[in-house]
Amino acid sequence: MGEFKEKKATCGTVCLKYLLFTYNCCFWLGGCGVLGVGIWLAATQGNFATLSSSFPSLSAANLLIITGTFVMAIGFVGCVGALKENKCLLLTFFVLLLLVLLLETTIAVLFFAYTDKIDRYAQQDLKKGLHLYGTQGNVGLTNAWSIIQTDFRCCGVSNYTDWFEVYNATRVPDSCCLEFSDRCGLHAPGTWWKAPCYETVKAWLQENLLAVGVFGLCTALVQILGLTFAMTMYCQVVKADTYCA
Length: 245
Hints:
Layout: H1 2-45, H2 60-84, H3 87-113, H4 115-130, H5 139-151, H6 162-167, H7 197-207, H8 209-244
Helix pairs in contact: 1-2, 1-8, 2-3, 3-8
């Protein structure tokens, strides 16, 4: 009877070991994908989606590269820890994944708690960023604003008049025009988009809030599953070491 229980426990540990290994392989491959997209964006699009003047390095490419590298590192630690049944690596994986989950939760809570303040700060920062539009070394910011204004059919942060301060004239970028043509931004205001970009993009995000929420919930559940696998495996290894001792 004792031998049967021991074999059953060993079988469970092996199954858990390869479940955790498979989980971390997927985790690592996901990190590779995110890193690859980030590198591709950095190489082909420059600092795409850099809209902030206060945080010029906060571009889509840089965020993806940092996130991808961090996810790959966590996945690698988990893979090695599972294969080697190493207590230290399993515990490290658990702690890192737990910290990521807590960080995500904290950011989400703070975002919803200080939405109004974030709105005001974001609009002020974006307006400062407009003054870098079209200047040397700010190709990413220029491209990002051109894409947003064209795709969302909007102009400026809170109004098309935001651009008047940038140009010191009654003028907007050509991406603000209802019908694009060279130097159309010098035409009459009746030929420009009137919708404010900040509110337009915010409304679009709110319309897709359910999809964002589902994605966030699924991500949290996957992380909790990883935490469960890691801690269970860690406990099994500790129990096995104690039994052997």
